[in-house]
Each structure stands twice: as structure tokens, then as C-alpha cells.
Amino acid sequence: MWGIIIALLSGALMSIQGVFNTEVTKQTSVWVSAGWVQLTAFITCLIIWLFTGRESVTGLVSVTPKYVLIGGVLGAFITYTVIKSVGSLGPAKSALLIVVAQIIIAYGIELFGLFGVDKAPFEWKKAIGAAVAIVGIIIFRY
Would you list the domain boundaries of the chain? Predict the structure, then answer.
């Protein structure tokens, strides 16, 4: 149950953040806005780290495989793409397309066991669920 609540909160925060970032972009520029998001996220993480467990940052050196360390780079491009999509499609259409893309890509990662994720067997109900989500996009569009 806790996982469901956190996931719903994450989706809500992403939608609100997309709107906020798009407004900042209108008044500055996309890379200024994206940079501000990343900087304030870093400062927030630093402050929370100072008041919590204070795990050693040197642990990053032993992370394997090394490509998983590019999450921050992906985060910058996620911020950019969310800003651009909300600006051109609006919050609702953007969120719908983003979530459907996440579902399809995440299922593909599980299905093929990519990036160290345990490989999951193909399930028709998941494929049908993704197809229903795509049909939902079409219905929402028209």
C-alpha cells in the first residue's frame, strides 16, 4: 500500500513540477529553468543528506556498472523534455503521453531484463494494458 501512495505522490509532484518549470521557462529560458531545477534538487538532497544517515559519498566510486551513474544527466534531459512537452501540449496531454511511454519502456526493460533488472516473462494482460493506455491517448486526443 505504501508503494502505491508514494507512486501516486510521485506522479502528482511530477505534474505540478512540469507546470512550474514551464512557467519559469517562459520567463527565462529552457536551460536556465532546467539548470535551476537540477541545482535546487542538488541543494535539497545535500540538506536532507546532512540531517539523515550521511552515507559516504565515496561509495559512488564502487558503483557498478558505471553507466548507471548517468542518472543526473538523464534527469537534465527529462526536465528539458517535460518543460517542452507541457509548453506545447499542456499538462494533461503531456502527463498522459509521459506515463504511457514510461509504462511501455518499463515493461520492455522488465521483459528483456535490461540494465540488471530481473527478466520477467511476457504477459498478455500487461501488453493489453499498454494497448488500452494507447487507445486512451487516442480517445483523450479526440
Answer: 1-88, 90-142
What would the pLDDT profile of 26-41 be if each residue is shown by its tens digit? 999 999 999 999 999 9
Cell triple for residue 61? 566510486
Cβ 79 vs Cβ 38: under 8 Å: yes
Joined together, the cell numbers standing for residue 107 give 515493461
pTM for the whole structure: 0.85
Q: Which three cell numbers stand for residue 48?
A: 536532507
Separation CA 35–CA 24 (nearest Å): 11
Q: How far apart are CA 98 and CA 81, in angstroms?
A: 10
Residue carrying C-alpha cell 532546467: 34
CA atoms within 13 Å, Cβ hemisphere of 22:
18
C-alpha cell at 127: 501488453
